[in-house]
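Quick illustration, no need to memorize.
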Amino acid sequence: MSAELGLAALWMAAALAFLQLAGGALAQRDAEAPLAALVRPAAMLQGLLALFSFAMLLWVFATTDLSVKLVASNSHSMKPMIFKLSGAWGNHEGSMLLWVTVMALAGALIGWLEKRLPEKTMQATLAAQGFVAIGFYAFLLLSSNPFERLPMPVAEGNGLNPLLQDIGLAFHPPTLYMGYVGLSVAFSFAVGALLTRQVTPEFARVMRPWVLGAWVFLTLGITAGSYWAYYELGWGGWWFWDPVENASLMPWLAATALLHSASVLAARDALRAWTIMLGVVAFSMSMVGTFLVRSGILTSVHAFAVDPERGTFILALLAVYIGGALLLFALRAGSVSEGRRFAAMSREGALVFNNVMLSAILGIVLLGTLYPLLTEAFGVRVSVGPPYFNPVGAIFTIPMLLVMTIGPLLRWREDNAERVRVPVAITTALIVTTALFVMLAAGNISLLPLLGLAIAVGLAVASLMPLRGRNLLRTPLSTWGMVVAHFGIAVSLLGMASESAFTEERLVAVAPGDTTEVADWQIELEGIDPVAGPNWTAMEARLLARRGGGEPHELRPEARSFWAPVQQTTESALLTRWDGQLYAVIGDQAPDGRWQLRLWWKPLVTLIWLGGLLIALGGVLSIIGRLASDIRRRSADRREADEHDDLAQIRGGRSGPAGELV
């Protein structure tokens, strides 16, 4: 019965999305239309119904209802509860229902809370949100029903992909989806503003928290996914430019550009058309990512769908949404005024430059992701990886980082080079000194890691300069957010460059009692033991690691065998120190009884993910600061309005009949 209730709620939510669209569209012609008043209630009720539908999906997974096809295909009665629940979104149908649920809840929040924009613009925004939701409801109900029943319940389920049975992957997809859906909200706001010609600073202030929230969730999702791939897949890397990785990176790049552009529009009433265009592009990238992962054209642990019809459906949605938005932009862009002008030497100028660089990097990633798919369609297989992405991306990334060191110190509208001469000199000296020191200390080092190390040090110091001369306790949270986020970028860059430049690797075959070395670590294989988990068995290695003859530390990498479904995986063992990580993976046993052992020493590698968390923290601080600022602004406006009303009443009382209090 739970599955039927969930499906019924999904149908009703889809009907409300139609009502939301129709009411919002009619409101553009007649603000007094009967359906216009139903737009906000429809959005709120739709959110509740979608949430109920997803709760029913969680319930059938939690109870392992093997009469539901999706449960039988992706769950197993012996799985731990956390992986039973994560199995609800660790598949194609469930992940799309999660997407729709988050989108509906976002629309409900807009309908409930947002009062700042003109009602006509809000109704247009909710209509656009309903239009986007309708396509995904149709996709679920007509092509990917998550509540489909089997003719006969099966005795046991197939189980979830063992690579997804990890606590990191339990939270990685939801954070990414929240980011994607946040961009859908930004898209809806952009469409609503275009339809009503209300591309104003107030529109940017309303949209900005959604963009910031999406950006924070995308940052957390990418960071979690990178760390999961690093320790779970056993290959020792944290990024491989895989198309599925790129599918999450592209929306993040577009969201970063949109975030800065919306901030300029909100603060200085500039970049109006650019902000609208980036709102469309950012959602376009999330749709492209959805198509890549769920169309069946990619083979990946993340790529759920293998049915070409589903891919065609998503491609059609992409064409309708993005093509329609671009057409609307083309028709209405002429009516969007330019906004206030600014000099090239200004904070706006620095933000525009970096937005152009981000757009160029986005184009590089998009081209490198789609090109192999296009050539394969013509029977030619090519591989595009780090040899393309790293040097070509660096052409635009390095200038962007250099401008980032000085951009926050510039004044709005116009500035002069003389005023920022000292900070520029300090940053330049740090970058040059660091590069020379690394070249002398490390000897043979590649150009890109060298530049990364030098710029990271300069950016780290420059990111703190906006706090110079301020009362730190009175510094706005939005300023702290910018500082923390930029400092996080420097920290991540330092970790990336160090890992790339100084990693040492060793692949050996050892017997119990043998000792090997990597960097300044001595690793002894004490033995191999069989162990068992809830739905797997494993051969576990007992390693003792000593550094320079110091105290021993134990590592226990595993080679696991799952039986539901049958699959072999590796579980790496990590030993973290302040200056890096020792990474160990156990392989197969050779005919002579020795075991394959793969070891890495990765200096400062943990800074990559620490920096990612700092970037997300900066976004959270900015959200809190911006919301607090907006609340203060609205309170001030209300006080001013109340004072104006009181004054009007006093004046009216004075002009009224004698003895009458007005």
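Residues 176 and 221 are 5 Å apart (CA to CA).
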